[in-house]
Amino acid sequence: MADVKTEKMGFEAEVSRLLHMMVHSVYSEREIFLRELISNASDACDKLRYEAQSNTALMEDGTDFGITITADKKAKTITVADNGIGMNRDDLISHLGTIARSGTAKFMDQLTGDSKKDMQLIGQFGIGFYSVFMVADKVVVTTKRAGESEAWAWESGGEGTYEISPAQKDGRGTEICLHLKDDADEYLDQFRLRKVVTTYSDHIAVPITLAAVGGDDKDKGAEEPQVVNEGSAIWTRPKSEITDDQYKEFYHHVGHAFDEPALTLHYKAEGMQEYTVLLFVPTQQPMDLFDPARKGKVKLYVKRVFITEDSEDLLPGWLRFVRGVVDSQDLPLNISREMLQNNPTLQRMSKAITKKVLAEFEKLADKDEEKFLALWGQFGAVLKEGLYEDFERREQLLKLARFRSTGTDGWTSLADYVARMKDKQSAIYYVTGPDEKSVARSPQLEGFKAKGIEVLLLSDAVDDFWLQMVTDFDGKPFKSITRGASDLKDIAGEDKDADKKDKATEGAMTTLITMMKQVLGDKIKDVRPSDRLTETAACLVADDSGMDMHLERILKAHNQIDAVTAKVLEINPSHALIRKLADKAGDKGAVDALSDDVWLILDQAKILEGDPLEDPAAFARRLSAAMEKGLV
After folding, report:
1. What is the mean pLDDT of the segment spanning 189-210?
2. Would you place residue 572 in the very low, low, confident or very high pLDDT band (cuts 50, 70, 90)?
3. Which CATH architecture has domain 7-230?
4. What is the pTM of this model?
5. Order of strands, edge to edge, in the sheet holding 476-480?
6. DSSP 167
7. Secondary structure of residue 430 in the 3-state scheme
8. CATH tag, 384-490
């Protein structure tokens, strides 16, 4: 250790940005820094309690856990200490030097540069340890990992760099010493600290002791260390004894969240299995909601001993936004995270808990539709993942699902869509795309809108995939309006303007289509007249046996397929451009004379679909030539 020197390192760029905001913060609720530190300390104790199940030597410094907060008025410091798992050098770099959670990166992405708006974001995203720099101009972390002999110190002023050096520390755990800013003196006051702890952290199961040193004579009575939190695991207490505020603050702790829970589910299961459940559905999307790992964040306990917080088997991935705890009385205390996989006891618990959560959603949808729709707006895209991967609960999720459509301004259920179907309409029509605006502008919608036939507007990435697994609802098949021939002519409902439109004659259209196929060759699969277009000259659709166009684009973008297939080009017989082309298609030399126009129609259809043009230079040349002719 003697030859190991202090190392000076730089924060990741994202952390530096975050720290700059924290250092210069004027956020009115800076007291959350203490809640974050206590929450982290509690987690460290939980992790050591679990690790010690298989390695008792880790507890050689004692089996009683505790968190101590010491305020030193003369030194103007607050120290938060725990005897949990502790950290080594690599842990310090990983946890405090880089962004450890994808959610922090999302927090950074949403910063606007407007300090007032950015301060409001603090209330939406959990910023953990870094919140200390709202009240401190220097932070020193001294820590020793359980089972290791070396202690380490981490120090930073929050201005872009930090230092790590060997240190001396008796016993395991972590001490975080905050050197307070001049405007943060209030947190040296015992009454203020006690209020913060009891407000935010009263539920923490580890005893939190408040102490003071360096005070005036009049403060001597306050210098006696006192345990200030109730310290009982909130989920073990009867619901009648727990206030809404206590539930809310426990949600903040267990979910590392700042919003309020939209739903709280607290119950005890007894019988063949015994376990306690306290779950929360957030109001806002958690920061890591769309992390590819899809890890859940419900903490699993066995007889109040923490086991894990990211078990993939406790709740399905499509409920990963749920936060809370499940405490089992049946699982063995020494169970490992690896042993949890495919554990039959855990599988039965998961099935029952998932059923309960869905029942709560159904109850909310019946009793408070507005609140349910707000939740669906936040988490519907994730819940729809269950339509793709959970056959057992597919029908239940289909009934819960809500969609945007051309038939209503708000959300609609599938049951309501079916109730509004036209006479002789046998399918549930939908169109998919990258976002709501582009989907709503799809040219393929025109004929359906003209006849008042409702179409679901699907813009979540998961929509293209669950539709491959779900064939129908209530016996009505799902049908894409961008694939296959349209069956609009068979459905009741009249296009009021249809008779007013001039159309190219059938013979002229046949000639034009023959010519267009000759010009375009294998770039298209077919050319045919369209009854789904009323305003646009042309559009692309997939063949009956082909893949839906948007799904194909997604798979191509992710290198899941090598190339996209040729599409069918549909042309609108009533569009002025198509009528003029049809009139000239039979003229001598029409193929050469109209070739550029035909290619422009195909390019236009591709642009409408958001597809890249194979030859942008040729497109620009043709467009310039067409404009020149029009100006002559």
Report:
1. 88
2. very high
3. 2-Layer Sandwich (3.30)
4. 0.74
5. 408-413, 402-405, 456-458, 428-432, 476-480, 472-473
6. E
7. strand
8. 3.40.50.11260
Token pair listed for 68: 């101590």
Q: Give the CATH H-level superfamily of domain 501-631.
A: Heat shock protein 90, C-terminal domain (1.20.120.790)
Q: Identity (one letter) of the amino acid at 390? A: D
- Give, in degrees to the nearest 5, the angle at Cα 524 between 520 and 526: 105
pLDDT of residue 465: 93
**Nearest residue to 398 (alpha-carbon basis) of 312, 475, 480:** 475
Structural domain spans, the chain:
7-230, 235-371, 384-490, 501-631
Q: Is 487 exposed, middle or buried (0-12, 13-18, 19+ CB in 10 A)?
A: middle
Band (528; pLDDT cuts 50, 70, 90)? very high
Q: Which two tokens stand for residue 624?
A: 């310039």
What the block records as the tokens of 44 is: 């460290």
3-state secondary structure 327-379: EECCCCCCCCHHHHCCCHHHHHHHHHHHHHHHHHHHHHHHHCHHHHHHHHHHH
Architecture field, domain 235-371: 2-Layer Sandwich (3.30)
pLDDT digits (tens, 9 = 90+) for 425-439: 999 999 999 999 999
Residue 359 to residue 330: CA distance in whole angstroms: 24
In this structure, of 42-56, 109-123, 431-445, 561-575, the range with the lowest mean pLDDT score is 109-123
**Minimal CA–CA distance to 441: which of 596, 214, 609, 281?**
609
Q: What is the mean pLDDT of the chain?
A: 87
